[in-house]
Amino acid sequence: MSALDKTRQKYLFKWLKQQTKQHRKPLFYSILLGFISAGCIAIQAALLALILQELIILGGKFTTILPYFIVLLLIFILRSFLTFIREKINFSLGLKIRQTVRQQLINKIEINGPTAITQHTSGGLTTLMIEQIEDLHDFYARYLPQMRLAMIIPIMILLVILPFNWSAVLILLGTAPLIPIFMILVGMGAADVNRKNFKALSYLSGHFLDRLKGLMTIRLFDQGKQQSEQIREAAENFRIRTMNVLKMAFLSSAVLEFFASISIAIVAVYFGFSYLGEFHFGSYNGTVTLFAGFFALILAPEFFQPLRDLGTYYHAKAQAIAAADNIEKFLTDQSPEIYDQENQFINFEQTITTIIGKDLIILSPDNQPIVGPLNFTLKAPFRLALIGVSGEGKSSLLNVLLGFLSYQGSLTINDIELKQINIDSWRKQLSWLGQNPYLINSTIRENILLANPHASSQQIEQVVAQAQLSKLIAQLPKGLDTEIGEDAVKISVGQAQRIAIARALLKPCQLMLLDEPTASLDNQTAQDIETILANSYQHSNIIMVTHHVNQQMQLSLKWRLHNHQLHNITE
After folding, report:
1. Which terminus of the chain is more exposed, N or C, with fewer CB under 10 A?
2. How far apart are CA 463 and CA 466, in angstroms?
C-alpha cells in the first residue's frame, strides 16, 4: 500500500479547507470567541497577579482586593459562557460541512448510476458514507479553528507581557518553535497511518458483509473455518492499524507536553533567579516586580496552550486527510459524462415514435467499450426480444436507455440525441423490471408506493389485482402492511417479483424495459409472470432481454446480440 506523498497531502488539506467556503461565518465566530476568551484569560492573570502583589508585597487587606475577586468571578462566568457558545458553533460547523460533503457523495452516486456503483463493495461504500465522513468532524470543529487561534493568541500574550518584562517574551519566543517543529516531525506519517487504517476497515467491512450474504453457500461447501480465519486475519490487521493510529496520537501529545513543560520551567527559573538577585535584566526599571513574575508565569502555560491544543487535534487533521483521500477520489472519479450538462435542456414529453442507434458503442464506467458499434431502428409500436448468451452486453443496452451508461456514436429518441434530453423527463417515460428487483426492508405497501408516493388506495388495489397479489395479501394477517424483511426474506422469489410488477404498474410508461424478469423463477411461476406482464403492458413498447422467446409476451421482433453485433432473427 503506497504512502501518501507530501504533494497529495497538501492538495487534500487545501481541498478540506475549500469545503468551508459556504460556512465562513461560523468559522469566523468560533475564532472570534476563542480570541475573546484568551483576552479574558489575560485579564484573569492580571487580576490574580494584582491580588498576590497586594497581599504579599503591599500587605493589603481583604476589603482592598474584594473588587478584584468580584471581577475575577464575573470573568470566570463569562469565559464559561463563551466556551459553551463556541462549542455549539464548532459542532454546528462540523455538522453542516459533513452534511455538505455527504450530499456531494450522494449526488455523485446518483450521477454515476448503479453500473458505476457496482465497482465498489457495499461495505466500502458504507464506510465511505458513514465512518470517513464522520472522521472529518474534528478537523472542522476542532483543528481548523484552533489552527487560526494558535497563530493569534500567542502573539496577543507576548504583547501583553512585553510592557512588564522583555526577557520572558524572549524566552517564550525562543522555545515556542520547538513545539511545531516536533509536532511536524511526529505527525509526518500520521495521515498515511490513518489512511492505512481506513483501508483496513473498508476491506474488513466489505469482506464481512460479502461472507455474511454468502453464508448459506459457505456452509454448504464446508468452508466455515477457512472463511472465519480470513475474517480473523482482516480483523487482526485492522486492530494493528488502529493501534498504530493511537500510538501516533499518544506520542504526539507526549512530545508536546514535554517541550511545553520545559519552556514554562525556563520562564520560572528566570524569575526565580531574578528574585534571588542573580539576574538583573528583563525589567525596564531595573527591578523585576512580583506582579510581572506572577503575570508572566500565569500566562506562560496559556502561551503554549493553543499550540498544545493544536497538537492534540493534529491527529484529527491526519485522520481527515486520510478520509479525504478516499472521498476526493470518489468525487473526482473520471467516469465518462453520460449527459452534456450544458445542453441538457430538452424535456421529453412527447410520444415515443422511433429509437435509432447509429454506430452506437456502449462504454463502461471506466470509459472502455463494452459492445458495438450497433446500428438499429425501432419504430413504435414495438415488442422486442433481445436474445443472446450472458456477457454479450444485452443489459448494457438497457442501461444506456436508462441513462446509466455513456456511449459513443448516436442514439436518438424521435430524432433527438439522448445526451441532449433531460434525463429526469426521459425516465418518466420508462419502467424497468429485472430478475432480482430490489425491495426495501419495509411493508408491501411501502414497496409498491416507491413508484408513486401519492397514489390512492384505489390505485394500489388496482395494481395489486393486476399483479395477481390479491390472494396472497388476503392471506396475510396485516395485508398490505406486512413486513417483507431485508432482501424480501419473508416471501418467495415469485411473490417478490409480483410486488415489483405492482410497483412498476403504478407508474404508467411508454417504454417497458425487462431484464430477464423470469430468469430466477420456476417454469410455472415464470409463465404466470409473463402472462401478467403481457396483459399489463398491451399498449406499451417493450424491450425484453431474455435467453429464450416468451410465447406469452407476444414479442413480434427478435434480435440476437452475438459477437457485439445485432442480428435480426424475426421469423
Report:
1. C
2. 5
